[in-house]
Amino acid sequence: MKKYVLTGGPGIGKTTAIEILASMGYHVAPEIARMVIEEQKIKDSDVLPWKDLSKFQEKVAEEQLKMENTILADIVFMDRSIIDGHGYSKLANVESPILIGKVAKNRYDKIFVLDPLPHFENDGLRFENPEEALIVHQAIIDAYKHFGYEPIFVPVLPPQERVEYILGMI
């Protein structure tokens, strides 16, 4: 299986690109962190990034691996990966989940980092302002480099053209 990751800071168009890829018939994997946030908010749990980032990142890493291990496709495009959690952890000065260090190297075939869009919009689940979003963006890039990946940077283009750019690189 070929695993291609779309990543970067919040609000840069990852999910839009993933949705376009899905509409084209590609197998896609959703952002697990977003799913964990929605699930934990319903449970009124402490396993949320603004309450206990360490527990949250551990939960996200576990759920990410479970999801990845159930994929049965030749090619999958992923909205973030387990490595993003390492970037968020380092940025917040908390220990990155041990699980990430055990499985991160050589796990993904290509990493596509979408360049930040000129207009930042918050979606209600993320609380970063535009300046913080850029700091997160760099932390995520650094995390992939830490694990030996050479990210491919996807320029700001209309959404369909961004997807075509990505497809042209695989």
Structural summary, described in words:
By secondary structure, the chain is α/β, with parallel strands linked by helices. The protein has one domain: P-loop containing nucleotide triphosphate hydrolases (Rossmann fold), CATH 3.40.50.300. 49% of the residues lie in helices and 13% in strands. The chain is built from seven helices and five strands, in the order E-H-E-H-H-E-H-H-E-H-E-H. The longest helix is centred in the middle third of the chain and has 18 residues, at 53-70. It is globular. 37% of the residues are buried.
What order do the helices and strands come in, and which of them pair?
Blueprint: E1 2-7, H1 14-23, E2 27-29, H2 32-42, H3 53-70, E3 75-79, H4 82-91, H5 98-103, E4 110-114, H6 130-146, E5 152-154, H7 159-169
Parallel strand pairs: 1-3, 1-4, 2-3, 4-5
Provide a brief overview of the structure:
The chain is an alpha/beta fold and 170 residues long. The protein has seven helices and five strands, in the order E-H-E-H-H-E-H-H-E-H-E-H.
Helix coverage percent of residues? 40-55%
How many beta-strand elements?
5
User: Could you tell me the radius of gyration in angstroms?
Assistant: 15 Å
Number of helices: 7
Number of domains: 1
CATH top level assignment? Alpha Beta
- Examine the secondary-structure arrangement and name the CATH architecture: 3-Layer(aba) Sandwich
**Structural class from helices and strands?**
alpha/beta
CATH homology superfamily name: P-loop containing nucleotide triphosphate hydrolases
Task: Quote the CATH topology.
Answer: Rossmann fold
Ends apart, CA distance between termini? 13 Å
* Morphology: globular
Neighbour order of strands in the largest sheet:
2-3-1-4-5
- SSE run: EHEHHEHHEHEH
Strand content: 5-15%
Q: Main beta sheet: strand number and arrangement?
A: 5 strands, parallel
The overall pLDDT, averaged over residues, is 90
Weakly predicted, low-confidence segments: none
